[in-house]
């Protein structure tokens, strides 16, 4: 059975509303940004209901002829919404946006709004931890890095951007020297042009070297000693790379 976690009062009200009308042949729609868990919530509430996507018009039309209970995702993609017949059916739809409000209001007895993950910080933290576990398994990482506190949540595209940020974060922090060299090699191979490429791409090495060193040692004097360069040279490079 699909699991669904939430501490959001708004989402809990959606669940309560569905539970109160679960036995009725009425249709409902959940509208909200992409990747906010609308489909997971619908599957959690109606685990036995067939699911079709509005991206494939014919499949939706056929399913409506055969099923009394149906989950329709991507409802906004359907081109003939006003011609759909939901009489004596329990339709649970999800949509990234409402589209024609008049048609939506006619077809659905209940219209719910799914909040974004930015509005559900505790839910985002829960999903973050699940994605870290999944990424550790997928990337075959034996032990997670100790600096997970430095991970910055990216909720710009809800769970999609969060998941991408986690996989990127772990990939970068578990790369060995050879992998880093290969990454730089292919980046330069793809982008190298111009008449001053040596100086331009030297920044790929110098800037992170100085930034990491300053953070680790907290002193320009100490870092200049560690790097084996003059302190004035270090200051010049900090200025060249616009390092705060």
TrEMBL record:
InterPro entries attached to this UniProt entry: Homeodomain-like_sf, HTH_Fis
GO molecular function annotation: sequence-specific DNA binding
DNA binding HTH domain residues: 202-240
Signal peptide residue numbers: none
Pfam families per record: HTH_8
Family matches, as Gene3D superfamilies: Homeodomain-like
Domain of life: Bacteria
Name of this protein: Fis family transcriptional regulator
Organism: Sulfurovum lithotrophicum
